[in-house]
Design brief:
heterotrimer, B: 511 residues, 1% strand, globular, C: 125 residues, mainly alpha, 0% strand
């Protein structure tokens, strides 16, 4: 195999892992400054390799039109006719993910230098953080499901280690375990799906390219068959675990027990998006199972809405952000579910920027407030922490969907996709409406947070004494603020970019790798009882048998070029209005000092207090799980314990005792006297000869 | 012997180049110390290392070529070469680690002056020559010579620590029992010669037929098996092992447990596979009984051990029992198919070598940890499980690596030991040794108990109240050569077995 | 076939004969004293006067002599067949090889000798 510069990409994984090795083994003996240089440097190198990869990929003439390149590293497992290669897949999707992961990680690493400056265990922290980056890169670069699963488990492990980083704190340990256990439920789904694919004779290997390729052929005859739906739903179960969706979202808010940079990196910007990435990666597989796609869309939408309602009332600054993350992840799944995979990735990217920024800003606030996280104790921090305030504000505007900020473009793209989905599938309109209301709530709770934290007057002494964070923390904030602002301009809506005369670069780049594929005989929407006529282009450069009958269609709703411009403008307007309403509502509610002016509203608010309380208690979902799953589980565990102690241990201990006894007996032959050893050899030799003779005679 | 018409043309110098190089190195390292004093002493181990490197390269150069010398008496096929690689790597890292105690200026001044005698290097090189010839030999006389070449320096190496009574005891016990066992081997060889009139493996293969009632031959092969069995410590020829491994300097124990066992098994596989395989129906019962006995006795004895070196010694006995499965598999496979020169060795040979490679690095790594933990061999010989209690709190790196090697010995996943056991047992199952595999699995479960006992002590118990023997580990960076190589190999084999299996796939019979 | 073993048989006969002759001769030639009955009450009461230290110790030099014997004497055992095989090697055209073999062998023994000198093995003090 000839050498290609793209094979360098393996190094991007190697650097952070090397960093882990160095810091894990020798970090304790190294001066603080060395640790602070090595950890970000390894991630920085990976980022540079990511940029090189992008450049080489774009300039490689053989790889036009989103052609994937597979970089073979070594054969991992070979057993019978099963072979698993450790290879990396390089295509627009993985390059985009790689740049997001390494870029955001690098910034957060730098920030962590300041944030962890006073922690005695900073070397361990950075070792974990580097390990996380390595595992995450394995996840996004893997060319097959088993290899991806290494990364999948690896990031889960790092997440567990980092949530429980302050292991003296009991709550941190419990939260870490909760995250791990809940994630394991999801992992079980991924494993089942993997086994099903492996067992199916229609899928020759677990390489992503082969899965998608086989899915194209398989889809011809088994469009939306129960098997495919089951596989997709099991995969989605894994995604709900990792990406904190209903019903497995409960671990993410608790994960905020970890250091704030961890929340920013793992539980907001990168790891939790793994589920979205997996769906986009297996786009063809999901495309031939519209029923599963519908489930994804509904779950995503429901999660977005539900999490937003909880975020409305939370008083812990990081918990608000955590529920907001769950909600935004719901948006991404909604996008994938309606077939706009690239839009999901787009929102993933902008979300990585502004949510990382929000968390880092929150970290800065917590840092300034001497570890107080309750927003009721804050207020008026804008004057004392100007950089934090302004950058936080940029992020808040972005997530709220205010025009010209990145979140606006990506969220609008999702809403539009949902709308066009609804256009083809009438009851899908409900999704659009819910998404729109969620957008309103998002703006509302974000500005509630901004107002209570930064504006007004300081409520407590701590808030009065708050101070700005050191430069090593504020500079990453500024960089992320710039990204959170401009991040959206790589993919302007067609209705805007079209007249300006340039196409949508991110869409151009991503679409070949992440879009809905359509089987010719089954127009999208058929499963919903609606006919769609939009399937045109033949797949380019994908060499599978029966190419002529397989057609690629622009995913419903995502090809705005075909949509009427005026409706597109209305959609944009609707998003703006709902976002504006949210901000205005928050202002009204939280800055209003003279309640007497609006007695009716005041009364209404008091009535709603009960709702607020329920929302604060997270709709008692944790309690629901506690009594329906955890407690019965405990009873079962208790029964098993008794069984274990009485029956199993009895057998085991008895056996162990027996062997210990026998061992003690035969020990007497070991006398230490050489002539007895020699006698042993002699007797042994005689026995062997006799046994051989007897065998011969019996023969 | 058919070498009546021996002629120099049958000497292939490229085939025997590795042993020529090492032999030259023996002579040089024997005389060099007279010329070098003080700091110049470092030159002696350096020469040893260069020689080993050269031998490695010259072995690698004839990979896949299937060279043979002396009329096929000495064969440098891939099986020999793969075994040679293991021997040379083990010797290489051991030499580096020993250098620190040989050159006083390389270690901290308070350490004890062990290995003052420079003979340790020529002796170790001699062992390597013996091991390589053992794995290459296709003639009983040559095998016998090789075994003696390997053994005699080992007797001296075992007693290398002149300040320790236990070391001397080990040396003497090893020598006496070894000489006794060599007698059986020689007697067995003479009986076979008496019955067949030939000593080359292929000549024996052609001459012996399972139907003839040739009891001289059967007695002969039984006694040869006894001789081999002593070398690789099969029950009931194992009694010397715990005393010798405990008394010898820890690294030398590791050297014996790894290199010698690997050499012994390569020779056994060759003799049983290429020599007396037609008589499989006659010897398999004895081998099966010995295998079962060896794993059971090894594990049962290890259960109650509290001295770490003795525990590891018994563990190495148990591993020899598992490895005997490979002999049975190969015997069964080849007696059914018939041996053809140049044919792939089959998965049995592949898994035997994989198991050996995994075992070798885990066991020498474990002994190296003991050598590392204790300031001198006197303490090392007495180090108990109680002494390593709470080791993780005091020396986490030592504890972590020790745990890794123990996990590999016990056969836990992601280590080489797991895959080694897995491949070996799977192959044995597919050849129909169901009862033996069940037995081996039970034994593996049993063995996990005592390996875990150490790990539990290191991680979950608090440090002992009394002064522990490993309070002050020797500040010896040279031991890194051993422990990190073993760590790397254990994980490498455990995680990416395909790379080594690919190499082993090209291992073939004859040439 | 068995005729090949006749010389060995003769050798055995010689060995047995010579040892018998020596024992018998010494029995008749050595002087014996029965001056007192006490000799017969001592250990090993064969009539010879006991002497020396009871658990007889050999000086360690004895072993050195044994090792030196290997170096200086056993090589002669190999020199003999080497010498008589010269003719057949020359016929094959390998006389240089034939010579070199022995040089290597002697060289190895020489190294052993130098080692002994270096270790002061000949220092008989």
């Amino acid at each position: 195999m000839e050498m290609n510069l793209l094979d360098l990409v393996g190094l991007a994984i190697a650097f952070p892992l090397l960093g882990t090795l160095i810091l894990g083994l020798f970090g304790r003996f190294m001066p603080r400054i060395a640790v602070s240089i090595i950890a970000p440097a390894t991630v920085g190198l990976s980022f540079i390799i990511g940029l090189i990869t992008l450049f080489v990929y774009r300039t490689d003439s053989a790889l036009i039109g989103g052609q994937p390149y597979v970089s073979y590293l070594f054969t991992w497992i070979q057993s019978g006719d099963f072979t698993a290669n450790f290879s990396l897949l390089i295509d627009p999707l993985s390059i985009t993910m790689m740049l997001i992961v390494t870029g955001v990680s690098f910034i957060i690493h730098v920030y962590s230098i300041g944030y962890m400056a006073h922690d005695k265990d900073h070397a361990r922290f950075f070792a974990y953080l580097n390990l996380f980056v390595g595992a995450m890169l394995i996840l996004v670069l893997a060319s097959s499901l088993p290899v991806m699963f290494i990364g999948w488990e690896g990031v889960g492990l790092c997440s567990y280690l980092l949530i429980g980083f302050w292991y003296e704190k009991a709550s941190a340990n419990i939260a870490g375990m909760k995250a791990f256990v809940v994630n394991r439920i999801g992992d079980f789904g991924v494993l089942i799906a993997m086994f099903m694919l492996f067992a199916s004779e229609n899928f020759v290997s677990l390489e992503f390219l082969d899965i998608n390729g086989a899915a194209r052929i398989f889809g011809e005859t088994n469009y939306n068959s129960p098997f495919i739906i089951a596989v997709c739903l099991f995969l989605f179960l894994g995604a709900t675990g990792k990406s904190a969706q209903i019903p497995l979202y409960i671990w993410l808010p608790d994960a905020m027990e970890g250091p704030t940079p961890v929340s920013a990196l793992i539980h907001a910007a990168t790891m939790v998006t793994a589920g979205v990435y997996m769906l986009a990666r297996l786009n063809v597989l999901f495309s031939i199972a519209p029923t599963a796609m519908l489930v994804v869309a509904v779950i995503g939408c429901a999660t977005a809405f539900f999490a937003a309602t909880i975020a409305l009332s939370q008083v812990d600054i990081k918990r608000v952000l955590a529920y907001s993350t769950v909600s935004q992840l719901g948006y991404m799944f909604l996008a994938c579910g309606v077939g706009a995979f690239w839009v999901g990735i787009f929102h993933l990217m902008t979300h990585a920027f502004f949510k990382a920024l929000l968390f880092l800003g929150a970290g800065s606030v917590i840092h300034g407030m001497s570890d107080d996280q309750d927003i009721r104790n804050m207020g008026g921090l804008a004057k004392r922490m100007p950089v934090t305030y302004w950058t936080f504000l940029v992020a808040a505007l972005a997530i709220a969907g205010v025009p010209f900020f990145s979140g606006f473009f990506s969220k609008d793209e999702i809403l539009a996709s949902t709308f066009w989905f609804g256009a083809e599938f009438p009851s899908g309109k409900i999704l659009y409406v819910i998404a729109l209301i969620t957008a309103f709530m998002t703006a509302f709770y974000m500005f509630r947070l901004v107002i209570r934290t930064f504006l007004g007057k300081p409520v407590t002494e701590k808030a009065k004494k708050a101070h700005e964070s050191p430069r090593v923390m504020t500079i990453p904030l500024i960089i992320l603020a710039v990204l959170a602002f401009v991040g959206g301009y790589v993919a302007l809506p067609h209705v805007i970019s079209g007249p300006l005369g340039y196409s949508n670069p991110l869409e151009q780049f991503l679409k070949p790798a992440a879009q809905t594929y359509q089987i010719s005989e089954h127009p999208v929407g058929e499963a919903y009882g609606v006919a769609s006529a939009e399937y045109v282009e033949t797949i380019e450069g994908v060499s599978v048998e029966g190419e002529d009958v397989i057609h690629e269609a622009a995913g419903h709703g995502e090809d705005e070029a075909h949509h009427p411009a005026d409706i597109s403008w209305y959609l944009i307007l609707a998003s703006i209005v709902f976002a504006g309403l949210g901000i205005w509502g928050a202002y009204l509610y939280f800055r209003m000092t003279d309640w007497a002016k609006l007695p009716a509203l005041s009364r209404l608010i008091r009535r709603l207090q009960i709702v607020n309380d329920w929302s604060l208690k997270k709709w008692f979902v944790d309690e629901l799980y506690q009594y329906t799953i955890v407690e019965p589980g405990k009873v079962l565990a208790q029964i098993s314990l008794i069984f274990d102690q009485v029956v199993v241990d009895g057998i085991v201990n008895g056996t162990a005792g027996f062997f210990a006894f026998v061992g003690d007996r035969i020990r007497r032959f070991q006398t230490g006297i050489v002539r007895e050893y020699a006698l042993g050899i002699l007797l042994g030799a005689v026995s062997v000869v006799i046994i051989v003779f007897i065998t011969r005679m019996v023969l | 012997m058919t070498s009546m018409e021996f002629s120099p043309q049958t000497i292939d110098f490229t085939a025997i180049m590795p042993i020529i190089i090492i032999s030259a190195g023996i002579l040089v390292t024997l005389l060099l110390p007279f010329a070098a004093k003080g700091r110049a002493k470092i030159i002696n181990p350096l020469v040893a290392l260069i020689v080993l490197l050269a031998a490695f390269i010259s072995s690698a150069r004839i990979w896949d070529l299937g060279r043979a010398s002396f009329d096929g008496m000495y064969t440098a096929d891939n099986a020999t070469l793969f075994a040679s690689f293991i021997f040379i790597i083990v010797a290489f890292i051991t030499v580096i680690a020993i250098t620190a105690r040989y050159c006083p200026f390389l270690r901290s001044p308070d350490g004890e002056g062990l290995f003052a005698s420079p003979e340790v290097f020529p002796l170790m090189l001699t062992v390597v020559v013996g091991a390589i010839v053992m794995s290459a030999s296709r003639n009983l006389i040559l095998t016998f010579l090789a075994i003696e070449t390997l053994s005699i320096p080992l007797y001296v190496l075992a007693g290398m620590n002149l300040s320790s009574e236990r070391s001397k005891e080990a040396s003497l016990k090893y020598f006496l029992t070894g000489a006794f066992a060599s007698g059986f081997l020689a007697y067995g060889i003479s009986l076979i010669y008496g019955a067949v009139g030939k000593l080359g493996y292929h000549a024996i293969l052609d001459a012996c037929s399972p139907t003839a009632a040739d009891y001289t031959l059967y007695a002969g092969l039984a006694l040869v098996a006894v001789g081999f069995g002593f070398k690789v410590a099969l029950v009931p020829f194992h009694a010397w092992v715990p005393d010798v491994y405990q008394g010898s300097p820890a690294l030398i124990s590791g050297f014996m447990a790894s290199l010698v066992k690997a050499a012994g098994f390569t020779a056994i596989l060759r003799f049983f596979g290429e020599g007396i395989v037609p008589l499989y129906g006659i010897w398999w019962v004895a081998i099966a009984i010995i295998a079962a006995l060896t794993m059971t006795v090894g594990n049962l004895m290890a259960l109650n051990q509290i001295v770490l070196k003795r525990l590891l010694a018994y563990s190495s006995i148990a591993h020899a029992g598992y490895l005997l499965l490979a002999v049975l598999i190969i015997g069964k496979e080849w007696s059914e198919k018939g041996v053809t020169a140049g044919a792939p060795l089959g998965d049995a040979m592949q898994c035997a070598f994989f198991y050996l490679a995994g075992y070798v690095f885990a066991i020498i790594g474990s002994f190296a940890i003991i050598w590392w933990l204790t300031p001198s061999d006197k303490e090392g010989a007495l180090l108990e499980i109680d002494d390593v209690r709470g080791l993780n709190d005091r020396h986490p790196l030592h504890a972590a690596l020790f745990a890794l090697f123990l996990f590999s010995l016990a056969g836990f996943p992601i280590t080489a030991g797991f895959l080694g056991k897995f491949f070996l047992f799977a192959s044995a199952l597919s050849h129909g040794f169901i009862l033996l595999v069940v037995f081996a699995l039970l034994n593996a479960v049993l063995s996990a108990y005592y390996y875990l006992k150490i790990i539990v002590a290191m991680y979950m118990k608090s440090a002992p109240e009394h002064a522990s023997l490993c309070e002050e580990p020797s500040p010896n960076p040279w031991i890194y050569a051993v422990v990190w190589t073993c760590t790397l190999a254990t994980l490498w084999l455990g995680i990416i077995p395909a790379s080594i299996l690919g190499l082993l796939g090209s291992v073939s019979v004859g040439g | 076939m068995l005729t090949a073993y006749v010389p060995i048989l003769i050798l055995f006969a010689f060995m047995v004969a010579i040892s018998l002759i020596i024992i018998v001769l010494s029995h008749y030639l050595s002087s014996r004293k029965y001056s007192s009955r006490e000799r017969f009450e001592e250990p090993y009461e064969c009539g010879l006067s006991t002497g020396g230290i009871k658990p007889g110790r050999y000086p360690v030099k004895f072993y050195l002599v044994a090792i030196l014997f290997v170096v200086f004497d056993v090589e002669a055992v190999f020199l003999w067949p080497w010498a008589i095989s010269f003719q057949s090697f020359r016929e094959m055209g390998y006389s240089v090889f034939w010579y070199a073999e022995m040089i290597v062998f002697l060289g190895i023994l020489l190294v052993g000798y130098v080692y002994l000198v270096g270790k002061n093995a000949f220092d008989w003090k």
